[in-house]
């Protein structure tokens, strides 16, 4: 897997995500929780006032598939607020975990062991 871009989290999001990880029973630990925990540890933590242009919980994020140019907009939410089949995307989904903390213009690689895509954050709206 190629190196991912740096990420920034607000103190409030870092606390919410940390609580989500800690509240998960050991039997429910899975790759996405471990990935989220890794992201939390590598994140630059800042005050909410310093998150303009950063994907945070509650942000509406427009992203683009770099190779095809296809775009989609989602709202990044906690798992209990996600609604399958809508644009409300859980931070515990593979894509949600990849988007949290990225800045507008950041490009990241999405790899599911079969395919590899490059996705770019086009816009972040609070």
Structural notes for this entry:
With 126 residues, the chain is of the alpha/beta class. It has one domain: Roll (Chitinase A, domain 3). Helix content is 25%, strand content 29%. It is built from 3 helices and 7 strands. The protein has helices at residues 11-23, 31-42, 94-99, and strands at residues 8-10, 44-46, 60-65, 71-77, 88-90, 107-111, 116-125. The protein has a 5-stranded mixed β-sheet with strand order 5-4-3-7-6. A hairpin with a 5-residue loop joins β3 and β4 (71-77). The longest helix is centred in the first third of the chain and has 13 residues, at 11-23.
In brief:
The protein is α/β, with parallel strands linked by helices. The protein is built from three helices and seven strands; from the N terminus they run E-H-H-E-E-E-E-H-E-E. Strand 6 (107-111) and strand 7 (116-125) form a beta hairpin.
Features:
126 residues, alpha/beta, Chitinase A, domain 3, 5-stranded mixed sheet, 7 strands, globular
Give, in order, the helices and strands: EHHEEEEHEE
Helix content: 10-25%
Global geometry? globular
What is the CATH fold-level name? Chitinase A, domain 3
CATH architecture: Roll
Unreliable parts: none
Determine the N-to-C terminus distance.
30 Å
Q: What's the rounded overall pLDDT mean?
A: 92
Count of helix runs: 3
CATH domain class: Alpha Beta
What topology, given as strand order, has the largest sheet? Answer: 5-4-3-7-6
Helical/strand content category: alpha/beta
How many domains make up the 3D coordinates?
Answer: 1
Task: Please tell me how large the radius of gyration is.
Answer: 14 Å
Largest sheet descriptor: 5 strands, mixed
Percentage of β-strand residues: 25-35%
């Amino acid at each position: 897997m190629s190196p991912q871009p740096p990420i920034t989290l607000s103190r409030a999001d870092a606390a919410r995500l940390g609580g989500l990880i800690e509240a998960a029973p050991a039997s429910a630990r899975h790759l996405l929780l471990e990935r989220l925990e890794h992201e939390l540890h590598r994140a630059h933590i800042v005050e909410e006032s310093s998150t303009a242009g950063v994907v945070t919980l509650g942000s509406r994020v427009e992203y683009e598939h770099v190779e095809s140019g296809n775009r989609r907009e989602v709202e990044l939410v906690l798992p209990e607020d996600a609604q399958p089949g809508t644009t409300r995307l859980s931070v515990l989904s593979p894509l949600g975990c990849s988007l949290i903390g990225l800045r507008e213009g950041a490009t990241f690689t999405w790899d599911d062991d079969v395919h590899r895509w490059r996705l770019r954050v086009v816009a972040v709206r609070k």
